[in-house]
Amino acid sequence: MRHLIVNADDYGVSPGVCAGIRRAHLEGIVTTTTVMMNMPDARHEIDRLRSETPELGIGVHLNITAGSPLLPRHQVASLVGADGRFLRPETLLRRVDQVLPEEVENEWRAQVESLFSAGVRPDHFDSHHHVAYLHPTLLRLFLGLARQYGCPVRPPLVADLDHTDILRGIPKDQANWFAENAPRMLCESKAQHPDRLYASFYGQRATLPALLAILEALPPGSSEIMCHPGQVDDLLRRGSSYIAQRESELAILTSPQVREAVKRDGIQLVRYAGLSA
Question: Which CATH number fits domain 2-274: 3.20.20.370, 3.40.640.10, 1.10.472.10, 3.30.110.40?
Fold first, then answer.
């Protein structure tokens, strides 16, 4: 049996992205999404998720690399710049030894509790820009929260690591550590997770032939395909470098060819909650 989670990242980043993700579920193959709870419109957009897409799994996109923190600035001083906003991922990872672990844990916990307070139990945890997996301190905190909340997690990039840009721009020793140790730490944590993650459906590689190829070659077991569908709006244009590509992903994820491939190949679309089924 082949179980497939198709997770749309970045819910909450803008109304257009949120609308696109809901459409990618209702008309396409997206089964779960993860919410950036520190984004201003996140709580309002969660209400629309619950009313319009009740079968869509809702998780937390744990975030310390975009936007402003939920906690007051003085409580997360090691995570923010002079403008009070989170550091970019490459800056954070260069300065990670100066980051206070308790500030990361407290901010991530605030984001999780914010989803609970919206009436949603998280389907799973992942992290914006994958930073939770790129340093041992961050990974221990991430897996510790998953254990405390009894929540499944996204696996690290392994299946198509050579075809992603996620490790570009970070120190080589951190990239080497990630490749050698992140899968081991996940296994030792006993956190529930899919067998593999496909992250190459992104940017120039987010094409219909590429997605069909992933589906055709999907091995037995459980897999996640990460995606970023959305509809472009002014807020997205002002705050993201990944813009028009989101509409392209949306068109592919809702295409008849993709839906037919899933059906033809006997792939069972699931949420994280369905991994043990």
Answer: 3.20.20.370
